[in-house]
Amino acid sequence: MLTFIIRRLLWTVLVMFVITVVVFVIFFKTPGVDPARALAGRSPNPQTLAEIRAQLGLGRPFPVEYAIMMKKIFITRDLVSYSNQGTRVIQEIFAATPATMSLVFGAAVLWVVMAIAVGIAAALLRGTIFDPLIMVVALIGVSAPVFWVGQIVNMISQGSLHSTVLFSWVPPLGYTPFLQSPGLWFRGLVLPWITLSILYIGFYGRVLRANLLEVQNEDYVRTARAKGISERRVLMRHTLRTSMITFVSLFGLDFAALVAGGALVTEVVFGIHGVGFLFFESFQSLDLPTIMAITIYGAFFIVLINAAVDIAYAWLDPRIRPT
Amino acid sequence: MTAEPLLEVRDLKVSFRTDDGIVRAVDGVSFSLSEGETLGIVGESGSGKSVTMMSVMRLINDPNARFEGEVLYKGRDLMKLDQAQIRGIRGAGIAMIFQDPMTSLNPVYRVGWQIEEQILEHEKISKQAAHARAIELLTDVGIPQAADRVNDYPHHFSGGMRQRVMIAMALSCNPDVLVADEPTTALDVTIQAQILALIRKLKDEFGTAVVLITHDMGVVADLADRIQVMYAGRIIEKGTRRDIFYDPQHPYTWGLLGSIARLDRPKPRRLAAIPGLPPSLLRLPEGCAFGPRCPHRFARCDERPELLDKVGDGHLDACHLDVEQKREVRETTIHPELIEEVT
């Protein structure tokens, strides 16, 4: 198992290297585009362009250009945004990360717990009217777009009903760091968590139900019953455990994508200044250094989470472990 | 052997509601099993042999299934017990092994863990003691280096070895009854003999009664004290092993016997087969269910034959032919090649 983890992590490093090269090539080597101009933002003056070329060593051989850029991103971390008065990009991303993490982690907890509950409930209630009912509600959840749900939630909680008992606890839109006020942090995030997780609860609930029903017919579940263990234990230890294999692999991908900026819409709707929000802003001002840094940051995160998922996967399913 | 039977099934009926109508999978089956005895239940696919034993253990939880009759285990009617009570009997009093060892073990747990799970469910002993017992059991069923193998996953074992693990698991709580549902069907022929020998050896060591479900007459020939033959959800013949093999009464049994290759008789040009297919359980014929396939059918077969003791020594069969008639025509069904040679 240890060699498996080490090998998996070495792969991760290799994949990350390839990603940085690909991103670098896309941003700096697209034919017909002057990278300095692109990086400078809208209507740059010649001085800025010269400055950028000097700072980034543009015009020197490819490996040197690449090395300088990576040094600026990973070692000295002094890549600046030219369209945004020289803000340091990496620091900006790291400052935005806690908000995104708070949003995505909370939503993930909610969605895993609720999806498991929904999946199990539907599977257990199979044959009754409740199973199709739960599945239809889940499908509605999957179909409701986040920007729409978010706006409706805001309209209700910040609008006419804000003064009523029901929603008076909701703070104004925005994010309060946990260390500043845990209570406010929590109250401000409850509705974004729910909004973001609705889609995933519906989707994961449906996937889990299908898997549970499939595994329920497996011979080893019958064996478990024949052993005389309780239905509850059969469900938790035998049926659910193997059904979770698909769930976990999907979860890793979705979770990583959200942390990497995929929660953009939720962040924008609720005014949470996280990575997605930052991406949204830099996209509007064509702030290329920030976009590039977020791309690399996001890709790294996805690759890392994927490695974690593979390791969790090997824990869940011993058949894929190397012997 | 004359004492009260360990397990007694009385007029068990199992039916399933389906879109096409009611399927009568088991239709009035009665039998009993004494301590330490081996009962063979023989029949082809769909004859109701597995459903009978699955119903006895109440392992069918299809909401469309209906059960009637009594299943007395040590005087208690299993059909009337609640979930918690029946769970106390499953695995501890009556244990079961299944046809396909490749899929009957949970792939994500170590085999030792799976054996220990059952022991810990039924007995108040420590995990260490359960683990030690698991190793002991694996040794008993002939798994080499059991102390190491106990920590392996099912996919590290071959089919035969997995069936040994299943047997170890079934025996882990010293059950009174072991139900073996086609235990050798999914295995290679060489392994089949090993597994049967193992079941016989352990049955004696543990003093367990065995219900052996199979479609293979060769399997029961070796192991069973008594045999009952099932067809279309009913028992059509039952008796001692000797009765069934040397004085078979039902034409269906003859067909089964004729379809095994035997080394102690002249080699047939081709192995006999029973023509036709078993009837649909949705639309059973009015009379004898085997009638449409029976070469000895006559007028009375339109009315359903009862399972009666016609031979007169506890050897029951459900066929209208009388005993003498049957003894005359039987050889031509079991060994048609003998006739061919004469003509």
Would you identify the regions of chain A where 5 or more consecutive residues have pLDDT less than 50? none
The most extensive contact between chains is:
A-B, 23 and 29 residues
- Order of helical and strand elements of chain B: EEEHEEHEHHHHHEHEHEEHHEHH
Morphology call of chain A: globular
Q: Share of helix among residues of chain A?
A: over 70%
Principal-axes shape call of chain B: globular
Mean pLDDT of chain A: 87
Radius of gyration of chain A: 24 Å
Strand order, largest beta sheet of chain A: 1-2
General description of the model:
The complex is a heterodimer of chains A (323) and B (343). Chain A has 323 residues and is mostly helical. Chain A is 75% helix and 1% strand. Chain A has 13 helices and 2 strands. The longest helix of chain A has 36 residues, at 89-124. Chain A is globular and about 80 Å long. With 343 residues, chain B is an alpha/beta fold. Chain B starts with 6 loop residues before the first strand and ends with a helix. Residues 338-343 of chain B have low confidence and may be disordered.
Question: Secondary structure elements and their pairing?
Answer:
The complex is a heterodimer of chains A (323) and B (343).
Chain A: H1 2-28, H2 35-40, H3 46-56, H4 62-75, E1 80-81, E2 87-88, H5 89-124, H6 130-143, H7 146-158, H8 182-216, H9 219-226, H10 231-262, H11 264-269, H12 275-284, H13 288-316
Antiparallel strand pairs in A: 1-2
Chain B: E1 7-18, E2 21-33, E3 38-42, H1 49-56, E4 65-73, E5 76-77, H2 83-89, E6 94-97, H3 101-104, H4 111-122, H5 127-140, H6 146-149, H7 159-171, E7 177-181, H8 189-206, E8 209-214, H9 217-223, E9 226-231, E10 234-240, H10 241-246, H11 251-258, E11 316-317, H12 323-334, H13 336-342
Parallel strand pairs in B: 3-8, 3-9, 6-7, 7-8
Antiparallel strand pairs in B: 1-2, 1-4, 4-5, 9-10, 10-11
Helix pairs in contact in B: 4-5, 4-7, 5-7, 7-8, 11-12, 12-13
